[in-house]
Structures are given as structure tokens and as C-alpha cells.
Amino acid sequence: MLFRLALLFTAVPIIELALLIEIGRRLGTWYALGLVLITGIVGGFAAKHQGFRIFAEIRRELAAGSLPKDQLWDGLFILIGGILLITPGLLTDITGFVLLIPKTRQIAKELVLRKIHKWLKMGIIQIL
Predict the structure, then answer these.
(1) Is 85 exposed, middle or buried (0-12, 13-18, 19+ CB in 10 A)?
(2) Burial classification of residue 18, based on how many CB atoms lie within 10 Å of its CB (0-12 exposed, 13-18 middle, 19 or more buried)
(3) Which of 28, 32, 81, 114 could bond 99 through an S-S bridge, CB–CB 3.0 to 4.6 Å?
């Protein structure tokens, strides 16, 4: 697990840097920087808007006496997507936008929940 995290935190920034250098070489430095800036701003506003929408849904579910489990997962993925969008880089921006689109967020949510259920069955995760 530690090896995977180390690989993630070293490989992703190297790939992001290589992509930005290549885009800067092909389009120009200012276009590459502008692209990163625009995706960060647009993504931040989109994450904020969706976050407020999900927060309102969570409040509505709680007021109705229901547990808002789907909305909590959506909120988590929107938070992660927003963090990825304000992180400079194209791969993180693409991943962040994927997590902000409801249909693709649903797919990601199903994949994560399947993985968690698998870990629960295998005993890797235990709930006390």
C-alpha cells in the first residue's frame, strides 16, 4: 500500500509536468498556463455549485428523517473532484471534471462501493 501511494505521489506529478511541457511546446507557454488557470476557475465554480446543491439535498433528506447515504457519497466525490480541479495539471483536471458529472460520478461511486464490499468480505476492512 505504501509503495502504491509513493508511486501515485511521484508518477502523477511527473506525468502532469510532462503533459504541461508538451502542451506548452506545441501551443505556447501562455496558452498552457491559461488552460490550467481556466480549468481551475471553471472547475472550482462547478464544484461549489454542485456542493451547495448536494448540501441542500442532504438537509432535505435529514429533514424527512432519512439517511442521505447517496448524497453523502456524491458530496465526497464532488469534494475530491473540486480538489483535483484546483490542482494544476490536465490529468487531475480531467479526473476532477469526471467526478463532477453526475453520470460518471455514479459509475465511480459504484466502482468504489464494489471495492469496499470486496474488502469487507475479505476482511481487509472491519467495521466495529
Answers:
(1) buried
(2) exposed
(3) 81
What pLDDT, in 10s, does the model give residues 32-83?
889 888 988 898 899 999 999 999 999 999 999 988 888 999 999 999 999 9
What the block records as the C-alpha cell of 9 is: 505521489
Domain count, the chain: 1
In a domain? residue 125: no
Distances from the Cα of 42 to the Cα of 7, 81, 94, 97, 102, angstroms: 29, 12, 12, 10, 17
Tell me which amino acid residue 107 is: I
Tens digits of residue pLDDT in 104-113: 999 999 999 9
- Would 111 be classed as within a structural domain? no
